[in-house]
Amino acid sequence: MRRLRGDARSVGIALLAVAPIMVAVVRALVGHQMPLGDNGLITLRANDVLTSNHPWFGTWTSASLSTGIDFNNPLPLHFDWLAVWVKPFGLAAGSVLGAASLNIAAVLLAIRQGWLAAGRRGEALMAMVMTCLSLTLGSEMLTDVWQPHNLVLPFAAFVACCIAVAGGRFGSLPWAVGVGSFVMGTHLDRKSTRLNSSHIPLSRMP
Fold it and tell me: What is the DSSP letter of 60?
């Protein structure tokens, strides 16, 4: 029976996979990266969490342009996540740390799902995929709180959860539902992609 627990090699794989994000954090903090434009609005709303101006919905969505009706993304969970970092560390550093921590969590979750789906090979393959995505995004996007940038790695983690479920690891189903809901609720433009990716062929499982 394949072991479900990792070891020192798993730790090493995980550290290598999150290294690009850690480098991006250092560069952003040293360079005093400031949240401007949409990033600034997102950071300010994160700072409003648990105040009299608490955000109950997400940001206004450009999907409004195709409907002719202004509406927001349905869930404020992205604000809630960022608030954990923005409140103690300030708007500038907090936005960087919040965006990076979400990406790190996504990478670690994806690697874990790879292990569950296919053991060491699945773990290594998922680490390679997430590392390539991180390098493709580049340092600035890895510390960017704008949803289209900050949700790339979480969406990849959602796909990894779906792969694990398709492989019979039904304990990953709550993770797939939770991460998928977070991504869709934070940015509606990912809804159609999320739904297409979640068509898991359960009937073909042994």
Answer: B
Burial track 170-186 (b if 16+ CB lie within 10 A, e otherwise): eebeebbeebbebbbbb
Instruction: Please classify residue 144 by burial: count the beta carbons closer than 10 Å to its beta carbon, then call 0-12 exposed, 13-18 middle and 19+ buried.
Output: buried
Contact 42, 77 (CB under 8 A): no
Contacts of residue 31, Cβ cutoff 8 Å, sequence gap at least 6: none
Distance CA 101, CA 135 (A): 16
| Residuewise pLDDT in 10s, the chain (206 residues) | 445 455 889 999 999 999 999 999 999 999 999 999 999 999 999 999 999 999 999 988 777 777 788 888 889 999 999 999 999 999 999 999 999 999 999 999 999 999 999 999 999 999 999 999 999 999 999 999 999 999 999 999 999 999 999 999 999 999 999 999 999 999 876 554 444 444 444 444 33
Q: Which amino acid is at 102?
A: L
Beta-carbon count within 10 A of 54 CB: 13
Residue with token string 């798993």: 10
